[in-house]
Specification:
It is a single chain. The chain is of the alpha/beta class. The protein is built from 9 helices and 8 strands. The strands form 2 sheets. It has a 5-stranded parallel beta sheet with strand order 2-3-1-4-8, with helices on both faces. A 3-stranded antiparallel beta sheet has the order 6-5-7. The longest helix has 15 residues. The structure holds BIS(adenosine)-5'-pentaphosphate and magnesium ion. The site of BIS(adenosine)-5'-pentaphosphate (AP5) has 36 residues, from helix 1, helix 2, helix 3, helix 6 and strand 6.
C-alpha cells in the first residue's frame, strides 16, 4: 500500500496519516517531521530547513527529494508507506513517479483532505505537537488527557514555530501556488480521492478506510 496525503497546511494530513499507519501497519513518512527532528538534533540539514520553514516557505526540492528517497529506501518501507507532506510541488511528484517506475511500482491513492482556508487558521493556532514523538492535538477539538502532556509518550506539547499567525498565511499562499496543482496531476492519473476534512476526525478516518478497504 502506497498512499499520498494531500491537503493544505493544517488540513489534518498528519492526524489521519498516523491513524492509517496504525491500522494498516505501514510507516508514516512525513517530510515535515523529518525536518523537525533534524532541527531538534541541530544537524546541518535542520539548520538549512529551518530558514525556510520559519518563513512558511518550502524547503528546496533538491534537499527534500533526497531525504524522502533515502527514507523510502529503508527496509520498513518495503511493504508500503503513507507519505504526508510529500510531494508538495510538481517536480517532487515527477521525481517520485520516475523512481517508482524504475522499481515497477506506483502510488495507489492520493487522498486530498479538503479543508477551506477559513478553518485552517483556527486549527493551526490551536494545534499542540509533542516535542518527542510528533503526535498532534488540538486544544479544543482533540485535547490531550492531561493539558500540555502527550498521551502517547508523556512528553511536553508545544506550539510549532511555524504555527504563528503571521506564518500561517504565507504557508497557505505557498500551498495554493505550489501544491494545489498536484490535485490536477493526480486526477489525471486516476488515483485522486477528495474527502471532506472538516468532518469529525473519526468520520474523516471512516471515509478514508472506505477508500482503502478494511
Ligand atoms: P509539514 O509538517 O508537512 O506541515 P504542513 O503541510 O504545513 O501541514 P501541517 O503539519 O501543519 O498540517 P496537517 O495537515 O498535518 O494537520 P494536522 O493533522 O497536524 O511541513 C512543515 C514545513 O516543512 C513546510 O512548511 C515546509 O517548509 C517544509 N516541508 C515539509 N515537506 C516539504 C516538501 N515536500 N517540500 C518542501 N518543503 C517541505 O492537524 C492540524 C490541527 O487540526 C491539529 O491541531 C489537529 O489536532 C487538528 N485536527 C485534525 N483533524 C481534525 C478534525 N477532523 N477536526 C478538528 N480538528 C482536527
Ligand atoms: Mg503534519
Amino acid at each position: 500500500m502506497k498512499i499520498i496525503m494531500l491537503g493544505a497546511p493544517g488540513a489534518g494530513k498528519g492526524t489521519q496519516a498516523k491513524m492509517i499507519a496504525d491500522k494498516y501497519g505501514v510507516p508514516h513518512v512525513s517530510t515535515g517531521d523529518i525536518f523537525r527532528a533534524n532541527i531538534k538534533e541541530g544537524t546541518e540539514l535542520g539548520k538549512e530547513a529551518k530558514t525556510y520553514m520559519d518563513r512558511g516557505l518550502l524547503v528546496p526540492d533538491e534537499l527534500t527529494v533526497k531525504i524522502l528517497l533515502d527514507r523510502v529506501a529503508k527496509e520498513d518501507c518495503k511493504k508500503g508507506y503513507i507519505l504526508d507532506g510529500f510531494p508538495r510541488t510538481i517536480p517532487q511528484a515527477q521525481v517520485l513517479d520516475a523512481e517508482l517506475e524504475k522499481l515497477g511500482e506506483g502510488i495507489d491513492f492520493a487522498i486530498n483532505v479538503d479543508v477551506p482556508d477559513n478553518h485552517i487558521v483556527e486549527r493551526m493556532s490551536g494545534r499542540r505537537a509533542c516535542v518527542e514523538c510528533g503526535a498532534t492535538y488540538h486544544i479544543v477539538h482533540i485535547p490531550s488527557q492531561k493539558e500540555g502532556i502527550c498521551d502517547r509518550c508523556g512528553k511536553e506539547l508545544v506550539l510549532r514555530d511555524d504555527d504563528k499567525p503571521e506564518t500561517i498565511q504565507s504557508r497557505l499562499d505557498v500551498y495554493h501556488d505550489q501544491t494545489q496543482p498536484l490535485i490536477a496531476f493526480y486526477t489525471e492519473k486516476g488515483i485522486l480521492r477528495t474527502i471532506d476534512g472538516t468532518a469529525d476526525m473519526k468520520d474523516v478516518f471512516k471515509t478514508i478506510t472506505g477508500i482503502l478497504g478494511e
